[in-house]
Amino acid sequence: MNSFKKNLLKKRYNAERRFQWYGKIAIGLALSFLAVFMFQIFSKGYSAFQKTWIVTEVHYDKELLLIDAESPSKDDLENADYYDVAYKAMTSLDPGLPEEEDRQLIQMVSYKYEAEVKDLLLKNPDYLGKIVPIKLTASDDVDQVHKGNYPRDIPEENRRVNDYQLQIYDMLNERGDILSEFNISFFTSPDSREAELAGIASSFMGTVFSILVCLAFSFPVAVLAAIYLEEFAPKNKFTDFIEVNINNLAAVPSIVFGLLGLGVLLAVFNLPRSTPLVGGITLSLMTLPTIIIAARASLKAVPPSIREAALAMGASNMQTTMHHTVPLSMPGTLSGTIIGLAQALGETAPLILIGMVAFVNTIPGTPVDPAASLPVQIYIWSESAERGFVEKVSACIMVLLAFLILMNLAAQIVRHKFEKKWS
Amino acid sequence: MNLILVTFIILLAFTSYYFGRKKALVIQSSQRLTALPKFYGYYLAAWCAAPALIIFALWSVFEPSIVKTFILQDYTDQNLTKNELQLIYTKVKALAAGTYTGNITNFLDESANKYIQLKGIANSAKVAIILAILIFSLSFAYRSVQKNDRMREPVEIFLKWVLFVASLGAVLVTIGIVFSLLFEAIRFFQAVKIFDFIFGTHWYPAKTFVRDGQPDPELMKDAFGAVPLFAGTFFIAFIAMCVAIPIGLLSGIYLSEYAGRGVRKYAKPIIEILAGIPTVVYGFFAALTVGPFVKEIGNAMGLQVSAESALAAGAVMGVMIIPFISSLSDDVMTAVPQNLRDGSYAMGATKSETVKKVIFPAALPGIVGSILLAVSRAIGETMIVVMASGLAANLTMNPLESTSTITAQIVVILIGDQQFGDPKTQSAFALGISLFIVTLFLNVIALSVVKKYREKYE
């Protein structure tokens, strides 16, 4: 009997320990998912912040440039023919190469190399007639080889970089003519079909504009609605209905808002497609319930004694609300707003439906110019087959996450710094 | 034009505010004011801006359709269908704007001239009416300022109305969703029988694409069977819940019952980061890392695994959903009154027995609510499926094959240029409304369960 009891107790204690371990393992799993995830993104993405250049020499030969004038003006330089000069700059890397093979060399730099040759001369007009070193953007294949992301030991026919190009690459690398520098153009240039030239400037501006539009539409309406529902609304069927409605709206899938944007904003109101304006309005409909809920919670948190004191001093209901309750609730409302905007920032599906997925290679200057947004850019690039885009996607994700972290930090700071603690 | 008008109204409102306040100060010298001087200003400004802006908004909404009716009156004798009339109207508008590139017939030219004329009349009428209203309402308001009527009450009633209208915003959004979905979906169900949509087992909308002319009704019948999508949606959500429920629930239990203050303070927000990561990022992760990983493991075990498997998408979605379940169930279990725990301990139960036999049953409604919310979230999730689970709608229960979901098909259909009036585009709205109904149903149940539960322990 005694041993039976002891066994039972032992069993129960073992069960207790097991149960605790299950909990620890579950939390460990959740945290390790996060860790693996972050590791994957960072290890793939950090190299996108480096850009590979190939250094060669260019001879700005007046004859090849087809410049006749003795001291050419800016216009002459602008209209000169750079094809031959640029071509010579690349082929001079291996003078022994037969002419019909020269494409192999040209393919090692980005297709915009001619423009790069031109820009250098326009910036330094005194280079005319001289032989000067020049940095050319390496093609994304060479770029990936240089970063070690591209296996060199697979058979040649499966490789995008052939043996000859690898040989040239090795020669240049030994001479120190392959440079790796911080990739400024990733932040300053718009999207491109070529991975080595693609940047996030257009989608970044698109995101900023959409968020501003979203804020402008959703914040005033949401705050006013929250004030009405919390401070003035009579308790009846209709206000109950509004309340249920808001709670349900907060849980409607985001893609449904995309359909709304498509069916109403584009089809009925004829707003311009693919623009941050439409994207921002669509997102604002989505954030509206989130902000209303946050604002109501923080209005509710203002203690009744504040209201009573104001009323006792002879203030009207409206004055009490506008002069005392609302200002005191603002920190909570603002941090809720920032969190709602951060959610909207990561939304992709509704923006795809309203056409923000179009290829845009200009940087938008206003909210009515076509643009992408950062999450949509991630989607566009990740659908692309080229290897160079994988690291771009990861880098873009890092920028997006940094943006989100900043916003959440801002929400925390607003909450902790300005919120009054009532006790 | 519109911009100038609105700016003018707003500027006028500002001036009338200062004017009203000044007037109040003048009145003050002879009689007692009924309110603070600024209310005199608000009163004037509100009377100035509100009527004019309301009329302006109504006008802007109704003007285009009225002009359209006038223009299309000339075409009523030609027996044209609605779509053809729409096309003509678009042409007329383009011609009037000078962007039309097709060949111009006399009739069209006439209509375009009429359009420009009508627009001109409408514009001057608008300006005239708004100016008249401004003068009328301002003089009315100014008279009551002069009479020194009560000023604060009307201003506050006006503000209250503004607040009320704002709170209708959320209702308007819902109405907008329902109507925009219904409008297109009804047109879809005119072309495709609702029975074929709900019970058909073959989804292949691309088949109905026919250049010029109506698609074959026989083809349409077999192309829009949504069963594979419903099945795929619930299947992927099921896989996600298989990952999320055990991990989320156990973490929730551990956080609420076992973890010390320090662990809870840090572990909970860190787990919640998982919910804050954008879904497109999860999609990329699923497509690039998890999908190939699952495939490799499957191949090593001798299984046929597609690179875009339902398993990869579902598992990643499950990870995303963990915090929904863990945080909510943590909250509801923390809310279980302490005396229930104490009673159980007093009977000699261990902690895990208390959790399993007392706290868990007590918190069950709240936990069920949180799981339902998580399911609704999984059903509505789009990007992970679009990027990781393929786009072909296979009717399969094999987690290693690729399946598609309602949301993914909506994206596939509507990405790029859409043509309204095409059954393929409309089918996306039909899918959207079924998604809306399912998630609404889940949300209503979940929210009412959670609400009831909260009331029980408060």
How would you characterize this protein structure?
The complex is a heterodimer of chains A (423) and B (458). With 423 residues, chain A is mainly alpha-helical. Chain A has two domains: 53-180, no CATH class; 201-418, MetI-like fold (Orthogonal Bundle). Chain A is built from 18 helices and three strands. In chain A, strands 2-1-3 form a three-stranded antiparallel sheet. In chain A, α12 (254-266) packs across α13 and α15 (317-345) packs antiparallel against α18 (388-418). Chain A is extended, with a radius of gyration of 30 Å. The mean pLDDT of chain A is 87. Chain B is flat. Chain B is 78% helix and 0% strand. Chain B has helices spanning 2-30, 37-72, 82-97, 106-146, 152-191, 194-199, 217-223, 227-258, 261-276, 279-300, 310-334, 338-346, 351-380, 383-388, 406-414, 423-456. By secondary structure, chain B is mostly helical. Chain B contains 16 helices and no strands. Classes of the chains: A mainly alpha (423), B mainly alpha (458). Chains A and B meet through α1, α10, α11, α12 and α13 of A and α5, α8, α9, α10 and α11 of B.
Index terms:
heterodimer, A: 423 residues, mainly alpha, MetI-like fold, 2 domains, three-stranded antiparallel β-sheet, 3 strands, B: 458 residues, 78% helix
Topology:
The complex is a heterodimer of chains A (423) and B (458).
Chain A: H1 2-45, E1 50-59, H2 62-65, H3 74-79, H4 83-91, H5 103-106, H6 113-123, E2 131-137, H7 140-146, H8 163-175, E3 178-182, H9 185-188, H10 201-232, H11 237-249, H12 254-266, H13 276-300, H14 304-312, H15 317-345, H16 349-353, H17 374-382, H18 388-418
Antiparallel strand pairs in A: 1-2, 1-3
Chain B: H1 2-30, H2 37-72, H3 82-97, H4 106-146, H5 152-191, H6 194-199, H7 217-223, H8 227-258, H9 261-276, H10 279-300, H11 310-334, H12 338-346, H13 351-380, H14 383-388, H15 406-414, H16 423-456
